[in-house]
Amino acid sequence: MATAEDILLAKLQWYRMGGEVSERQWSDIAGILAVAPELDATYLRAWAARLGVQDLLDKAVAESKRDQPW
User: Fold this and answer.
1) d(CA 24, CA 41)
2) In contact, 33 and 64? CB cutoff 8 Å
């Protein structure tokens, strides 16, 4: 079973690969951030950097206004 973190990372990759225009992917990303309060920020930051989507993760987190140590 995939974790919320892994699904979020996959959605970020799909959003990037799709030219960063998919409202559906961005909406899903925002939804995951909204409903998964215990996300592992360290894991997300490490993998987002490896996958080249750190900027998108930062943007999504900023837009969600989460109180996480990002």
Assistant:
1) 23
2) yes
- Distances in Å between the alpha carbon of 22 and those of 11, 12, 18, 38? 10, 11, 7, 26
Cα(30)–Cα(7) distance, integer angstroms: 12
- What is the spatial distance between Cα 35 and Cα 55, in angstroms, rounded to a whole number? 21
DSSP 20: S
pLDDT surpassing 70 at residue 69: no
Cα-to-chain-centroid distance, residue 45: 9
Query: What confidence tens digit (pLDDT) does each residue in 14-35 have?
Result: 999 999 999 999 999 999 999 9
> Tell me, what's the pLDDT at 45?
96
- Asked whether the CA dihedral 29, 30, 36, 42 is positive or negative, the reply is positive
**Whole-angstrom distance, CA of residue 31 vs CA of residue 33:** 5
